[in-house]
Design a protein that fits this description.
It is found in: Cytoplasm. Its EC number is 3.6.1.9. By secondary structure, the chain is of the alpha/beta class. It has a single domain, classed as Maf protein (Alpha-Beta Complex). It is built from 6 helices and 7 strands; from the N terminus they run βαβαββαββαβαα. Strands 1, 2, 3, 4, 5, 6 and 7 form a 7-stranded mixed sheet that branches. The longest helix is centred in the first third of the chain and has 19 residues. The mean pLDDT is about 95.
Length: about 180
């Protein structure tokens, strides 16, 4: 590929996914305040946040491909972002226990000054979690900084009963779709 790829993300999980596929990339990102536009649909709101993350790098890297993403766990139309503290994480895990949730990742790709955004959604079903399982998980601190208060690729994988869709989307980037787009 003639254009260098810039991953506009501080997420170690997204870096791991890019490494897994042998993608040659550079990480650079600008901390942005994530503002959800309530007038948009949920998918468009998340695409807008992904765009907010990519846009500042467009000027710095006009001849490169910029890729950013934003992942959100949703449960019965409630958005479960990163928990504020342990109690908030506990509340989220109790909600997700024995329930289905939808994990949505919005991606923004800026290539040749053309902006493309898209989303992918994966349904994850958790088994019933005991209070002890939740407390033990919270003690690991793995939940910190994770949408929905868990990392599916980590210890929390034992909570999962079923996944309908792309696991990598839940981790933070629908790589199949990203690679397909880059190859087009």
């Amino acid at each position: 590929m003639k254009n260098k790829i810039i991953l506009a993300s501080s997420s170690p999980r997204r870096k791991e996914l890019f490494d897994k596929y042998g993608i040659d990339y550079t990480v650079d990102f600008v901390e942005t305040e994530e503002v959800l536009d309530e007038s948009l649909t949920l998918f468009k709101r998340l695409e807008n946040i992904a765009l907010q993350k990519a846009k500042p790098l467009q000027i710095k890297y006009p001849n490169n491909i910029i890729i950013s993403a934003d992942t959100m766990v949703t449960f019965q139309d409630e958005m479960l972002g990163k928990p504020k503290d342990r109690e908030d994480a506990k509340r989220m895990l109790n909600m997700l226990s024995n329930n289905k949730q939808v994990v949505i990742t919005a991606v923004c790709v800026i290539k040749d000054q053309q902006i493309t955004t898209f989303t992918d959604a994966t349904t994850v079903t958790f088994k019933e979690l005991s209070n002890q399982e939740i407390e033990d998980y919270l003690d690991t601190n793995e939940w910190q900084g994770k949408a929905g208060a868990y990392a599916i690729q980590g210890i929390a994988s034992k909570f999962v009963e079923k996944i309908d869709g792309d696991l990598e989307n839940v981790i933070g980037m629908p790589m199949y779709k990203v690679i397909k787009y880059l190859e087009a």
